[in-house]
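Quick check before the chapter quiz. The format below is the same one you will see on the exam, so make sure you can read both the input and the output lines.
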Amino acid sequence: MPPQDFRASIHPLYAVPLLEAHMPDAARVNRELAELFLALEAEGDRHRDPTPRDTQNGLFESNFYLHQRQEPAVRELFAFIDQALYMLVQSLNGYSDAQMANIELEMHSWFHVTRTNGFQGLHDHPNASWSAIYCVDPGDPGPAYSGAVRFHDPRVAASMHRDPGNENMQVPYRLSSWQLNHKAGQLIAFPSYLLHEVFPYAGQRPRIIVALNSWCRWKAGR
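Here is the expected output.
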């Protein structure tokens, strides 16, 4: 043990912020969203993003303008998402209300419908500051890996050595990946640089999520 006059400080360098929020009255909104998204999926390529991605298998990815649609459930969802993102930006950057009023939030957004054995390989989201995923329907319960999202530690060499001195460090210093299973109505927002993947979905009911990339700009000079 150090002597009684020993003094030191621990600073949380390089912590990765991750927001979790839950939408009020999500069950009602999610029913409307699921009905809409499955109807759009049924129209085939009309609403599909045309860019093929080799990280994807067994899922439908819509075009990237979901937030511009005018259906009431979509508008309600993005009012909730906008509020969460503005809160996140203000909290982490220390902006005043006046500064926030001068910030415009822009985004691309889309929905995924994932069928049995569908997955999304390891990827990040370039040209954005924040990304988010909202769960409309997690699909059928099953093995812990089914449809799970795994975020990878961005410190590429952090796990080069593990021993009792570091293997049980707690948030925000923990090592290795972090994995979650979606819950209906749950929003997760994270830095767009954070590598993540979605494991194969083992259920039968469609797994439905909304995803987005966002970035900010000043409306006028700072």
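If your answer matched, good. The mean pLDDT is 94.
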